[in-house]
Amino acid sequence: MKNILISHEQLERLTNQVKETKEEGSYMSKKQLFTIATLAYKMWEEMEDGEQIEDWMESKIAQSEQSIVAVAKEYMYNEFNEKGGMDKLGFDDLIIGM
Length: 98
Prior knowledge:
Layout: H1 8-20, H2 27-46, H3 55-82
């Protein structure tokens, strides 16, 4: 499974967009995604390179990653198709990862 990397500036822009967007039909989803993103980033900042965590923690992180990736792929695929496919895709629409 590939990791998706975002810069600190991208995270700030994302969190600002979430805060500024009027919460419509997916109020809980947006709030939950904001919580996941901010807590995951905070934990990532706090952890030292190579730091060991308990096995159950690693398992929960792996499960969470699989779940988020599955939802994000489906959501982005639907957004991509709604925008008209490759002909309408701009550089701001791309997610760059490893």
